[in-house]
Amino acid sequence: MKLVAWNVNSLKVRLPQLMDFLATRQPDVVCLQETKLTDDKFPTADIEAAGYRVAFVGQKTYNGVAIVSRSELTEIQLGIPGFEDEQKRMIAATVNGIRVVCVYCPNGQALDSDKYPYKLAWFDALTLWLKDELTRHSQLALLGDYNIAPDDRDVHDPELWKDGILVSPPERERFQTLLALGLKDSFRLFEQPEKVFSWWDYRMMGFRRNHGLRIDHILLTEPLAAACTSSTVDRDMRKLERPSDHAPVVAEISLVARESQKLDFPAR
DNA sequence: ATGGCGCCACATTGGCGA
After folding, report:
1. How distant is C1' of B15 from CA of A107, in Å?
2. Residue A191 burial (C-beta neighbours within 10 Å; 0-12, 13-18, 19+)
3. Could you give the CA distance from residue A92 to residue A105 in angstroms, rounded to a whole number?
4. To bridge A9 with a disulfide, which of A172, A188, A207, A244 should be the other Cys (CB 3.0-4.6 Å)?
5. Which helix (H) or strand (E) holds A257?
6. What gap in Å lies between CA A18 and CA A90, rounded to an integer?
7. Bases of chain B with protein Cβ within 7 A
8. Which of A28, A52, A116, A145 is catalytic?
9. pLDDT, tens digit, 9 for 90 and up, residues A96-145
10. A215-233 tens-digit pLDDT
11. How does DSSP classify residue A186?
12. Residues contacting strand B at CB < 7 A?
């Protein structure tokens, strides 16, 4: 089972790339961020014609998230329960027994911006809800654009970014708090090359020079982490004409391993 | 290295992203 998170930076502009991605990569689940579309403009027909189902929630100009899936989507949740928010940044659904949580976490803009405390509060609300959600779902995947580079290994030039937005200690603490819920960073389950990133600035030839950050992540609960066979970044999508500034991140789960896990360690 | 690029909207410039 192939799970993907991709910040498309406008689904209107990137729809042809998404259609090509579905046809060539054959993913099972794709979590999209920054669709930037109101629900009445969402391209449901195109996605269904490609053999996928989709659940979405969006708004004009900013934010917007969606889950594209080969299999049925049930228990769809829009927004973080208990957290009042105009911004459409979270959608969750159950697919093949896996609770899929798709997030577009706030950017924060700058440490002295009003958007920064909002970012921290948003993560706290997400964590509080996930803690509850995890009591009901042993198989949960948290995918999306976290807008946090967890470690200096995830930053092209740690000195340049030191203590700035996306890497500040309070943000990194929020990421660690998610891991402390029992989630694993799928990318770090495997030996990886150095300087693998998921986002590169459009300016200054950021991609060509690999001046990037790893801020898009797929976190997995233990049963899914044990069944995870690979976690990679699909850099080829960043090489296309008119690319998103983010590349898709991909995790593969062995359904056979997942099933044997369930037999070996039944839910308590 | 202040910006640079790309996307969006009550647009032809400014806000925002990261």
Report:
1. 14
2. exposed
3. 14
4. A244
5. helix A255-264
6. 20
7. 4-10, 15-18
8. A145
9. 999 999 999 999 999 999 999 999 999 999 999 999 999 999 999 999 99
10. 999 999 999 999 999 999 9
11. G
12. A 7, 9-10, 12-13, 34, 36, 60-62, 106-107, 109-110, 115, 145, 147, 165-166, 199, 201-204, 213, 215, 242, 245-246
pLDDT at A257: 75
Amino acid at A42: F
Query: In the predicted model, is pLDDT for residue A268 greater than 80?
Result: no
Write the DSSP assignment of A187-219 as a string of letters: GGGS---SS--SEE-TGGGTTTTT-EE--EEEE
pTM for this entry = 0.95
Kindly report the number of other CB atoms within 10 A of residue A176's CB atom: 10
Summarize chain A as % helix, strand, coil (round to 5).
35, 25, 40
CB atoms closer than 10 angstroms to residue A75: 11
Place of tokens 């899914």: A224
Cα(A53)–Cα(A69) distance, integer angstroms: 5
